[in-house]
């Protein structure tokens, strides 16, 4: 059974469904943080001067009819704190506390671990906004510009979600961490973001689509494990965030769809794979971008064998993807699993306790999900009569974290020497020449219904609006 659905209070300075008005101390603390957030948004958010944008804003936390669409000035977007519906009967589904009621307060013995998990998740949200700050200036259409800005405002709201938890449940230490989430900046030499992928540049729209397909998909799986948490406010926060995250992956999936479709059209028209001269992005170049963004995202899952992941699971604070659908005892104390390894110059597998293999378990779920996009894009090529396929490289290729960090492995899984790797890597990863070509295509198209020549138009508009709808108004 679930309790009555809490409505979002949009009359408050901070929209919320957590009764901020009933906790004046917390409300004042968040209202003091809000101007700092708005300053950060002004300094590090989208760098395009718009009048308003056709944006989706959450108005309810239920499964249907939860969002409202309208043109909104970007700096007036109603960021807020939204948790999904409360289930008073929910129990912890895994670990040594399995079967116990979920926690409404932070257990003292897990305080440091929970705070760390929330900070790491929170740090990724503003990072992606910073990485994408200048993309609006080269948008291939108003439709795409609108989607970029929708992603940005929702990443900002996801930051609010983590900041609320830090303020509400972690005292002074939490407030200090919330301040640091705005002090770090993507790519900064002095105070970079915590995770490496969130310090990479996103200088062009092909990179943006790859990021939203591969890296935001990592976010989906990390949020999915936190949604299982025995700490109920974190679980309910992540469940709602997953609703918004789905759109980000849609942007990536359909964006790459459209790039592949346009490349296929140019290949047919000019009867050549070398479409760069015709203003397109060659398949070989698309493959290089897949190789890079996929492997950087694989690193986000951490080491294949992890005592931290085991401890989080045993404590009940971070579960597995779709934990309650798993057909086992949800304890794993006596189970074994196999993880990837690299030993004596050879790719191998090690048997380890299942609790230590949870990072690899999650990575496996992620990899299978990533394969769905490759099937889509290859169907586009096959339909166009093109005898070529895009692929995911070997899990050991181009890795900087985990078992393969010291290995030189080709996309097809062959171990090579360092000298051979250095001689061949430009065939597999984007070169400066590749990046320069992609950037050369990035010219803005601001007329409703028009589209840049390197990408196909979308098949449908947003919220039943036509593709040529004026999604963005300028000053």
TrEMBL record:
SUPFAM superfamilies noted in UniProt? Ferritin-like (SSF47240)
The highest taxon in the source lineage is Bacteria
InterPro entries xrefs? Aromatic_CoA_ox/epox (IPR052703), Benzoyl_CoA_Oase_BoxB (IPR017635), Ferritin-like_SF (IPR009078), RNR-like (IPR012348)
Give the E.C. number(s): 1.14.13.208
Q: Please name the top-level EC class of this enzyme.
A: oxidoreductase
Q: What does the UniProt keyword field contain? A: Oxidoreductase
Recorded GO MF terms: oxidoreductase activity
Q: Please give the Gene3D superfamilies that the UniProt record associates with this protein.
A: Ribonucleotide Reductase, subunit A
Q: Protein name, please? A: Benzoyl-CoA 2,3-epoxidase subunit BoxB
């Amino acid at each position: 059974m679930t309790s009555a659905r809490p409505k979002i209070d949009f009359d408050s300075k901070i929209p919320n469904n957590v009764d901020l008005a009933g906790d004046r101390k917390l409300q004042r603390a968040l209202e003091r943080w809000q101007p700092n957030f708005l300053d950060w948004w002004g300094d590090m958010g989208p760098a395009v001067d718009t009048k308003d944008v056709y944006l989706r804003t959450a108005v309810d936390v239920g499964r249907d009819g939860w969002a409202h669409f309208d043109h909104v000035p970007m700096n007036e977007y109603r960021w807020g704190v939204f948790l999904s519906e409360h289930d008073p009967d929910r129990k912890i589904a895994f670990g040594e506390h399995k079967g116990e009621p979920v926690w409404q307060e932070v257990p003292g013995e897990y305080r440091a671990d929970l705070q760390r998990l929330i900070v790491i998740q929170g740090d990724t949200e503003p990072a992606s906004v910073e990485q994408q700050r200048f993309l609006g200036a080269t948008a291939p259409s108003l439709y795409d510009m609108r989607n970029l800005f929708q992603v940005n405002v929702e990443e900002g709201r996801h930051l609010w979600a983590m900041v609320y938890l830090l303020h509400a449940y972690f005292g002074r230490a939490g407030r200090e961490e919330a301040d640091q989430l705005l002090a770090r900046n993507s790519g900064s030499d002095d105070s970079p973001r915590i995770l490496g992928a969130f310090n990479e540049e996103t200088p062009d729209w092909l990179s943006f689509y790859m990021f939203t397909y591969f890296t935001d998909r990592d976010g989906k799986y990390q949020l999915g494990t936190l949604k299982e948490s025995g700490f109920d406010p974190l679980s309910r926060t992540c469940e709602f965030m997953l609703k918004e995250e789905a759109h980000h992956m849609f942007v990536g999936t359909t964006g790459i769809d459209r790039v592949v479709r346009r490349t296929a059209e140019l290949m047919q028209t000019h009867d050549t794979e070398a479409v760069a001269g015709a203003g397109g992005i060659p398949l070989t170049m698309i493959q290089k971008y897949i190789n890079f963004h996929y492997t950087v995202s694989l690193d986000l899952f951490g080491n294949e064998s992890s005592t931290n992941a085991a401890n989080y699971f045993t404590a009940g604070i971070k579960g597995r993807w779709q934990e309650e659908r798993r057909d086992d005892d949800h304890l794993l104390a006596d189970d074994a699993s196999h993880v990837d390894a690299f030993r004596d110059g050879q790719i191998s597998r090690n048997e380890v306790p299942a609790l230590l293999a949870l990072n690899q378990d999650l990575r496996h779920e992620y990899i299978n999900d990533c394969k769905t996009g490759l099937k889509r894009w290859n169907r586009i090529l096959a339909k166009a009569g093109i005898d070529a396929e895009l692929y995911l490289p070997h899990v050991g290729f181009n890795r900087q974290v985990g078992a393969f960090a010291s290995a030189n492995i080709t996309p097809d899984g062959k171990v090579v020497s360092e000298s051979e790797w250095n001689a061949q890597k430009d065939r597999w990863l984007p070169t400066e020449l590749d990046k320069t070509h992609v950037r050369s295509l990035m010219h803005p198209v601001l007329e409703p219904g028009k589209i840049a020549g390197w990408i196909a138009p979308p098949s449908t508009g947003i919220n039943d609006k036509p593709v040529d709808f004026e999604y963005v108004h300028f000053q």
